[in-house]
C-alpha cells in the first residue's frame, strides 16, 4: 500500500530529473521550495488530496523549463545533453584529424592501433556532441571516418599493399586534406 508521501516523492523526483542541467545548489533550492510549498498547502487545506495539490503546482516539465530559463540554461536540455556538452567541440575534431595523420604517417600496427581507437572515439564524441545538428554530424562522420577508411581499405585490397610510394603518398595527403577540411568546416558551423 502506498503512503501519501509517495506521490510527493515521485513528483519531486520528476522535477529533479528534468532540472538535472541546473547547478546542484540551484536544483536543491528549487526542490526544497517545492517541498515546502506542498507542505504548507497541505497544512492549510487538510482535506485536499495530494494529487490536487500537485496538479495545482503544475507539470514537472513546465517547472523545470521555467527554472532552466531563469538560470539561463537552454530549454529542453536533459542531463545527458548537458554532460555531452561539457566536451569541448575541438576535442572530437582533433581526435579524428590527428589520429588519421598518425595512421597515415606511421602504418606500424603497435602505433596505428591506438590511433584507430582514438579516431573511433573522436567519431563517437562527434556523434554525441550538442555542438552540431544531426545532418552536420552525419556529414562529419562520413567525411572524416567512413569515406577515408573505405578508400584506404579499397586501396590496400586492390594494390595488395605493394603500391608505389608517390601514388600512396598522394592518396594519403588527399584523405588527410579531406579530413582536415571537414574538421575546419565543423569548427566553423558549430553551435556556441
Brief overview:
With about 190 residues, this protein is mainly α. About 75% of the residues lie in helices and about 0% in strands. It starts with a helix and ends with a helix.
Distance between the termini: 50 Å
Instruction: List low-pLDDT spans.
Output: 75-84
Helix and strand pattern: HHHHHHHHH
Spatial shape: rod-shaped
**Total strands:** 0
Strand content: under 5%
Supply the helix-strand structural class: mainly alpha
Q: Helix amount, in percent?
A: over 70%
Radius of gyration: 26 Å
- What composes the largest sheet? none
Q: What is the typical, i.e. mean, pLDDT?
A: 80
Describe this structure as you would to a colleague.
With 192 residues, the chain is mostly helical. The protein has 2 domains: 5-82, no CATH class; 90-189, no CATH class. Helix content is 77%, strand content 0%. It has 9 helices and no strands. It has helices at residues 5-18, 24-44, 50-57, 60-71, 79-84, 90-105, 109-128, 134-159, 165-189. Helix 2 (24-44) packs across helix 3. The longest helix has 26 residues, at 134-159.
Describe the secondary-structure layout.
Blueprint: H1 5-18, H2 24-44, H3 50-57, H4 60-71, H5 79-84, H6 90-105, H7 109-128, H8 134-159, H9 165-189
Can you tag this structure with a few keywords?
9 helices; 192 residues; 77% helix; mainly alpha
